[in-house]
Amino acid sequence: MNLSTSWNGKKVAFLGDSMTDPKNKSTKKHYWKYLETLMGIKPCVFARSGYKWDGIYKKAEEMKTAVGDSIDVIIIWAGTNDYNHSIPVGQFFTETTDSVNVNGHIEQRKHRTFEMNDSTFTGNINRVMSYLKHNYPTKQIIIMTPIHRGYAKFNDNNVQPDENYANGQGLYVESYIDILRQAATLWAVPMIDLYSESGLFPMEHKHDIYFHHAETDRLHPNDNGHYRIARTIQAKLSSIPHTF
User: Fold this and answer.
1) Which of 29, 73, 86, 134 could lock onto 167 through a cystine, CB 3.0 to 4.6 A?
2) Is the dihedral of CA 9, 242, 56, 137 positive or negative?
3) Alpha-carbon span 15 to 55, nearest angstrom
């Protein structure tokens, strides 16, 4: 624990899915609670199990209603359910040809605008980021990638293969991870790449110590997994400014 860091007392909003939802019982202590202990942050959690990026937009609206402008940092952790539900990835931009003044001469050039919709992965990311950039222009916004996905069976009608199986779009989870990495670049926000840097790899059974249940849930981290995630986030936040 090091509460002498500049993050001590900062109000951090967490938008997410089951990995963040305090109602998820796969762990007794979520990563954001560990971060409260490790860094002294004040977490404000807006998350719901099963949410995709379209749900993150709803949580962003809920956050604005609940806390307004009083937060310091917004961290988004979502995307694994978009892969699992086979959401089409779409495109970040719609491209047209338009006239523009270049050094006093009117030229026809390609012109792009962000694609905003609630039916594709990229469209929903754009909606969320546009909303946050508009409503929180002075706040730090951070995107985190999902961790690797192991097998999970919650009931006979909810069986989720591990990440070595493509989804209904014929895409592996890395396609969604790569889009999130690109989104961070396009929207000028820092990224914490938990997929690469958390070290959690549920396809290896020796990593069962980090997940809820070795036989039925190697998707959701347990206390050990959330602590490891928190330590990874802690290390990354130490190099990211929280206020401007």
Assistant:
1) 86
2) positive
3) 9
